[in-house]
Amino acid sequence: MSEVLLEVKDLRKYFPIKRGLVSRTVGHVKAVDGVSLTIHKGETLGVVGESGCGKSTMARSILRLIEPTSGSVEFEGKNILKMSRGQMQQMRREMQIVFQDPYASLNPRFSIAQTLMEPMVVHKLYTPEERSEKVRSLLERVGLDPDYAKRYPHEFSGGQRQRIGIARALALNPKLIILDEPVAALDVSVQSQVLNLLEDLQEEFGFSYVFVAHDLSVVRHISDRVLVLYLGKMAELADSETLFAEPLHPYTKALLSAVPVPDPEFKRERIILQGDLPSPANPPKGCVFHTRCPVAMPVCSEKTPEWKEVKPNHHLACHLY
Asked: 93, 158, 226, 268: least buried by Cβ within 10 Å?
């Protein structure tokens, strides 16, 4: 296994619930509740789960785009949660993000050249001539015409805008890129182009990716390992092939049963989860999944399952194992 690039330990993000005239805190929304993981150099970690399970909050907390409540995030051995603002700005060169909405994440008043140059200007990199050349190179790298640099975001399609977002993330040659549902808003044909681009860039530059997504078939295609989140907690973590071939957690099995298979002869038992996702402001006691679990036992509602390795490199939190 290659060298560890990022290590997250017991990461938590609680949003306060305030009420009354004096805005008294009456509770917390536990968006991320005790996530621990490692990412190796050149690796892609997929993160999956239902809407509202804490995927995007976890991704943004790792980068300190929102401040975590507790825990530690070590990037190449340095805890970025203890860094000053100046130190954090330097660290941002190594860690970038591509957002889900390719239009909202681009400034409509900036030309594409200005958008791609902004990170270089902020970090005082290159001369003006070198920046212009770098912009042309970045656009070519993501499969766009360098002459598009003079255009504005509204002149592009969704897929092209997402490519511009990826080019902006590449502008500082980072070591880690967090991709927050980067293909969710794109057509299927454009999705495959963007995914192939990401794989080619990883092969060429050795980036590490955290790939947040709903679409399990996309995650299977691009990820080395997959983390399943439920209500802010870790449910299962394994390498991609193992997780899709032998899911162990009842929640993972239910998620995978919903993935369509391009074979009309193939019959798969569909697992329908009962009820809605519980509120993260008032999560169930014991195992947070027990209220919807088809194989729940009495212990599940009383005791929180321990996170453990049940097979080599296959971890989960479930009382069944």
From this structure: 268
Sign of CA pseudo-dihedral 279, 280, 284, 289: positive
Alpha carbons 230 and 287: distance in angstroms, whole number: 10
- Rounded Cα distance between 52 and 231, Å, is 7
Q: Which domains, from first to last, does the chain contain?
A: 4-83+217-261+268-317 (3.40.50.300)
DSSP code of residue 163: H
E strand or H helix that includes residue 204: helix 188-205
pTM (2 decimals)? 0.90
**pLDDT tens digit string along 279-297?**
888 888 999 999 988 888 9
Q: For the segment 24-70, what is each residue's pLDDT rounded down to a tens digit?
A: 888 889 999 989 999 999 999 999 988 888 899 999 999 999 999 99
